[in-house]
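Researcher: Next entry: TVP38/TMEM64 family membrane protein (Staphylococcus nepalensis).
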Amino acid sequence: MTQEQVQYWFDLFGSLGYIVGFLLPFIEAFIPVLPIIVFVIVNVNAFGFWMGTLLAWLGTVLGSYLVFICFRRLTHTRYMLRLQQRTSVQRLIHFIDRKGVIPIFILLCFPFTPSALVNLVVSLSHIKAHVYLVVLFSSKLIMIGLIGWLGNDITTLFTDPLRLILIIIVIVVVWFIGRKLERYFMHSPEE
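Model: Predicted structure:
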């Protein structure tokens, strides 16, 4: 799909294009199988780097925070109480309570981290809601900014194979580092 085709679909919605650009990352927070990377790249190519990044960033932050708040409100339900009794969940909650927000911040900076799972576990921890909002604002800005920068001009991917190779290398490195950090923070051997 070329930039002109993407722009055509957003122009078709008229001023609703901005709403769609916001809603796609927002909905991804609730349905984590949706591709946040694709939504950010589409936004950046349709609305420009700054506006596309802003729409995707606001959408994903507000969606993630709403998921966090919903899980936090449901902590006393039977299902959540059973979930909290699992050894692995208790270990993660204890880890987050001991280590604070730095591991969460680092994990959320990577686009391949399952943010819905992070939202669930953090909602069960003792981290204050306003502190988690600050973590979301900063970590998602880094994540969305990186994706937006990589996919800023999608048409050059077809004309400049070196840029495509560079982007693939950066994505693989980010994925590899994210997995290593996730394993380290979420499955620490000292736990």
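Model: Note for the record: Residues 3-186 form one domain.
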